[in-house]
Amino acid sequence: MVERSVGGSTDNQPSLGLTPLSRVRLDELLQEMLDRVGEVVTSRERLRALLDAVVGIGTDLDLRSTLQRIVASACALAGARYGALGVIGANRTELSDFITYGMDPEIHAKIGDLPHGRGVLGLLITDPHPVRLPDINKHPDSYGFPPHHPPMHSFLGVPVRTRDQIYGNLYLSEKQGADEFSDDDEEIVVALAAAAGVAIDNARLFTLARRRERWLAAAAEITGVLLGTVRRTEALRLIARRAREVADAELVMVLLYDEQNSRYTIEVVDGNDPEYGSLEGKLIPVDSAAAAEFGRERYRAVEDLRATVEWPGPVPDSPALAAPLSASNTLHGVLIVTPRAGQNPTDEDAMLLSAFAGQAALALERARAQDEREQLVVLEDRERIARDLHDVVIQRLFATGMQLQGAIAHAGRPEAVRRVNAAVDDLDATIRDIRRSIFELRAPVGPSLRLELREAAAAAAGPLGFRPVLDTSGPVDSAIPDDIVPELLAVLREALANVARHAGAESVRVSVRAADDEVILQVEDDGAGMDPALARGGVVNMGERAHDLGGSFEAGPGPGGKGTTVTWRVPLAG
């Protein structure tokens, strides 16, 4: 007797009372349950990988390293062969940086310039939403790939937000093990991008804090300099050097403002290229709108430094920041910082530079105050010496001369009278020299007309063959206005040039006197003489210079009809 199993089965396996159809359905349910368990396990693993990635990208606060880890983590989570993170520039229309992953450095170098955000890459810039494509080449906005670029098909792009602003975009390509990226890939990369935004924001804040710390340290160093004796050039060189180090700049220049002459002087230059040193000491007239605006704003950003003004030497053709060196409502100059190539200065950089420039301006203010204090000490000492010479030395010399003149009546021999008169003349000459020295002592510290007159006379020694005698009297430095000085010097040079060309003189005497509300320049020579009626060229110009200033000009024979005497006089009022 054959034993039958339940359900008609002829084998010895227990059937649990199920029909063949029920067993098939049970197998399907069991397989579906296993598939879902597998999906749960896979999702759990991907979730764990996502959490690991989130923790990983936040372990370091260096911004560049953070961006590189974000791209690597996105590729690992989505199974992408290639990945990139494009940072959107300040103009919000193109990419300013492009961090890649999965591409060999050799291929990277062959490709050349990084993308600017055109084609499909630009879709996320204009419309910041996830983009998933089975083949990027078939998209109507595809811009194509440059030479040497590896082939790419499947594509996934996700925007990266920091707070309420789009910082950049994550680009993934070439899904491994599938033809295209899945919904799960998109969701997990979107989740990673959200965490990446927080990590990027933290890294940026940390970078900003460190940058502020460096600027504060540099400002503290300048403050330390203020506590001691300040030498302007040394302080400016320290300011330029520290600004270049902190800003990691290509070039830093300190321009000092000359309001009287409406120009800037490039006082200090600190740059990576030795050729920049040729800029030091050069002048920049304030005749352009850009140069005039340098010191009127808290800070000024320029897109191209080279195109801003007509520079007297080489400067980079890149963006730059200019901050005024101003204190006590006085513009001392401008601090200009040019970042390295590829770096664009931000508003935060400009504000930090402006604060540093304000501290640097205090160094200039203190240096100027110390210079004025030192000049005041010198002037006080000069005034004391001048007073002693006038009240003591001159009076004693004058008394000695009077005594000698009184002794002439008692001198019986002509030789004794001659010697006494000669001694009196020497005393008079000494008194004139001392009075001239007194005027020089009381002259302001700075540019000196007496010095310029001596230089003009010395310059004429070559053409003349001898050095003219120069005699100045009266307050030449302090009484003659600035608008008369260049005219006076021009007339003197022209007169000496005429003597050298036409007179054939053996001696020339130049006298400049400031007294009785007028200045008188007289040039006498013992040469061949001249006919005033034939005056032309330079002689006519000398007369016109005098008439323009309300004065007079005479040129004619010297004493005794010998040589020529040129007399140029103008009122001190001009």
From TrEMBL:
The keyword Transferase applies. Keywords: Kinase, Transferase, Two-component regulatory system. GO terms for cellular component: membrane. Residues 62-210, 231-374 form the GAF domain. SMART domains: GAF, HATPase_c. The keyword Transferase applies. SUPFAM superfamilies: ATPase domain of HSP90 chaperone/DNA topoisomerase II/histidine kinase, GAF domain-like. GO terms for molecular function: phosphorelay sensor kinase activity; protein dimerization activity. InterPro entries: GAF (IPR003018), GAF-like_dom_sf (IPR029016), HATPase_C_sf (IPR036890), HATPase_dom (IPR003594), Sensor_HK_TwoCompSys (IPR050482), Sig_transdc_His_kin_sub3_dim/P (IPR011712). It comes from the Bacteria. PANTHER family: NITRATE/NITRITE SENSOR PROTEIN NARX-RELATED, OXYGEN SENSOR HISTIDINE KINASE RESPONSE REGULATOR DOST. This is Signal transduction histidine kinase.
